[in-house]
């Protein structure tokens, strides 16, 4: 992508409305624009990041055996009356009427709809286990939308729903999602710690929140620092095998949100020098809720003995749009964002330090073509801004590799490459630059 043809409305001033760094940087880097309280338009740079995060989430759900579908954003109120949640949900639910005065709502979550789909087709234990997910916009009329996309009213969520014949099987489904979440967040360059959590309005009795530690987070958390260094399951983890050892390893070290924190146990189990009491950002949550929805909505399947039983369910959410902000909270410095490569909007940016100089232009064009030929997501700053402004913009938008092309280096056949994460610089030939990045 040529920057001269891209849409990157960078702001010079710090936006006053932004209270935390990720919100500030997303606005300054021209990633998104607020259209109403908690409702955002994703501009091209931000949209590229959102798509990369979404794709990692999708790949790890698929790897764990979940199946993608797509449910609508609008749902019938009557469906929610079946579970009793239409009245229980309260003012967070956006309620809408169509021209025939039928009551609809913009889905804040999809337990009811997926249960309706399930019960229409699945009648036997032989079709289980089943895990269905979608990545779809949700609406919750939050009392205090704030921190930009981290607490929006309209936001993108991945939500998966598992169906099993009994509790033991449902726990295996839960464990698969637990492991998939460990991998998902690690691939994005995040340390997201599974912590015991309250089940809230979803209901049920087993739940973990995945939390990124950050002072600006909205949840208070307590954990043993050992949990920060546990190994992430590898990409060939056997989801059909026994995952209980991995789960045990992660859940035997103390980690809990403040809602379920057990101070006595914490003090008993965690040595004083390993106690971490801080704040965190909830980027995902998994629930096992048993037969809560299948009882209410009559989602029954025939067991091996032919008798109909309500299925055991779980639901598993990831805050896809919140993750964009959470990653920035974890990866930035005073100059701007430092994207982990896996979610970066572009992998590399070429900075032409003397636009209009035939040799420099030629070297940039050649490098640009070669990186594209190797499928590198490359941005080429071919604008006529002065070098200082190009450096500042590149630091702000956080592209992992900056390639500086100027007349001095070129005279010696060299380009300068700067790694955004730690500022490390190296002088390399164009061939070496391509080999390093591609
Ligand atoms: P929170 O405690 O932050 O209000 P939640 O517990 O209500 O979140 P869940 O119902 O568990 O949210 O939804 C799954 C995921 O969706 C959350 O873990 C979070 O990452 C994301 N999410 C929830 N509410 C919002 C929101 N208002 N804006 C952006 N993401 C959200
Ligand atoms: Mg909430
Ligand atoms: Mg929560
Ligand atoms: Mg939650």
In short:
The chain is an alpha+beta fold and about 450 residues long. The protein has helices spanning about 20-30, 45-65, 75-85, 85-90, 110-120, 165-185, 245-250, 265-270, 290-295, 320-330, 360-375, 385-395, 405-410, 430-435, and strands at about 30-35, 40, 65-70, 75, 95, 105, 130-140, 155-165, 190-195, 205-215, 220-225, 255, 275-290, 300, 310, 310-320, 330-335, 335, 350, 380, 400-405, 415-420, 425-430. The model has no long low-confidence stretch (mean pLDDT about 95).
Average the pLDDT over all residues and give the rounded result: 97
* Uncertain stretches of 5 or more adjacent residues: none
SS summary, helix count: 14
Q: Ligands bound here? A: adenosine-5'-triphosphate, magnesium ion
Major sheet, described briefly? 9 strands, mixed
Radius of gyration: 24 Å
- DSSP helix fraction: 25-40%
Family: Belongs to the class-II aminoacyl-tRNA synthetase family. ProS type 2 subfamily.
Organism: Bradyrhizobium australiense
Subunit structure: Homodimer.
Keywords: Aminoacyl-tRNA synthetase, ATP-binding, Cytoplasm, Ligase, Nucleotide-binding, Protein biosynthesis
Question: Which key features would you list for this structure?
Answer:
single chain; 438 residues; alpha+beta; five-stranded mixed beta sheet; 33% helix; binds magnesium ion
Describe what this molecule looks like in 3D.
This protein is of the alpha+beta class and 438 residues long. 33% of the residues lie in helices and 28% in strands. The chain contains 14 helices and 23 strands. The protein has helices spanning 21-28, 44-63, 77-83, 85-88, 111-121, 167-187, 244-251, 263-269, 292-297, 320-330, 358-373, 387-397, 407-411, 430-437; strands at 32-36, 39-42, 67-68, 74-76, 94-97, 103-106, 130-139, 154-164, 192-196, 206-213, 219-224, 255-257, 275-290, 300-302, 308-310, 312-319, 332-333, 336-337, 348-352, 378-381, 401-405, 415-419, 425-428. Strands 3, 7, 8, 9, 10, 11, 12, 13 and 16 form a nine-stranded mixed sheet that branches. A five-stranded mixed sheet has the order 20-19-21-22-23, sandwiched between helices. Helix 2 packs antiparallel against helix 6 (167-187). The mean pLDDT is 97. Bound molecules: adenosine-5'-triphosphate and magnesium ion (3 copies). Residues 109, 140, 142, 151-152, 155, 157, 282-285, 317, 319, 321-322 line the site of adenosine-5'-triphosphate.
């Amino acid at each position: 992508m040529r920057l001269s043809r891209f849409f990157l409305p960078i702001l010079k001033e710090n936006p006053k409305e932004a209270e935390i760094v990720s919100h500030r940087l997303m606005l300054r880097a021209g990633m998104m624009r607020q259209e109403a309280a908690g409702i955002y338009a994703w501009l091209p740079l931000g949209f590229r990041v959102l798509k990369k995060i979404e794709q990692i989430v999708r790949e790890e759900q698929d790897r764990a055996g979940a199946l993608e579908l797509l449910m609508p954003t609008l749902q019938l109120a009557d469906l929610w009356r079946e579970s009793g949640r239409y009245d229980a949900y309260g003012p967070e639910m956006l309620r809408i009427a169509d021209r025939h005065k039928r009551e609809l709502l913009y889905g804040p979550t999809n337990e009811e709809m997926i249960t309706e789909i399930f019960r229409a087709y699945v009648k036997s234990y032989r079709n289980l286990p089943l895990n269905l997910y979608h990545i779809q916009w949700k609406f919750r009329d939050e009392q205090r939308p704030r921190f930009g996309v981290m607490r929006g009213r309209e936001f993108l969520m991945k939500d998966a729903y598992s169906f099993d014949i009994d509790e033991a099987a449902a726990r295996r489904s839960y464990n698969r999602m637990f492991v998939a979440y460990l991998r998902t967040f690690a691939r994005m360059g995040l340390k997201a710690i599974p912590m015991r959590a309250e089940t809230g309005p979803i209901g049920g009795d087993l739940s973990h929140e995945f939390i990124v530690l950050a002072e600006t987070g909205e949840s208070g958390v307590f954990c043993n620092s050992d949990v920060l260094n546990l190994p992430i399951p590898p990409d060939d983890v056997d989801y059909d095998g026994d995952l209980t050892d991995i789960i045990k390893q992660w859940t035997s070290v103390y980690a809990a949100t403040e809602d379920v924190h057990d101070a006595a146990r914490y003090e008993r189990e965690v040595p004083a020098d390993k106690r971490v009491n801080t704040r965190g950002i909830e980027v995902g949550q998994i629930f096992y809720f048993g037969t809560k929805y299948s009882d209410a909505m009559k989602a029954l399947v025939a067991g091996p003995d032919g008798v109909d039983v309500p299925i055991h369910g779980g639901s598993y959410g990831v805050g896809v749009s919140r993750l964009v902000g959470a990653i920035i909270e974890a990866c930035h410095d005073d100059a701007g964002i430092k994207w982990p490569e896996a979610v970066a909007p572009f992998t590399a940016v070429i900075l032409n330090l003397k636009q209009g100089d035939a040799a420099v232009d030629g070297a940039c064009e050649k490098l640009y073509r070669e990186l594209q030929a190797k499928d590198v997501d490359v941005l080429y700053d071919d604008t006529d801004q002065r070098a200082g402004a190009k450096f500042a913009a590149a630091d702000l938008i956080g592209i992992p590799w900056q390639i500086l092309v100027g007349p001095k280096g070129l005279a010696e056949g060299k380009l300068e490459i700067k790694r955004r994460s730690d500022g490390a610089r190296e002088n390399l030939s164009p061939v070496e630059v391509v080999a390093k990045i591609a």
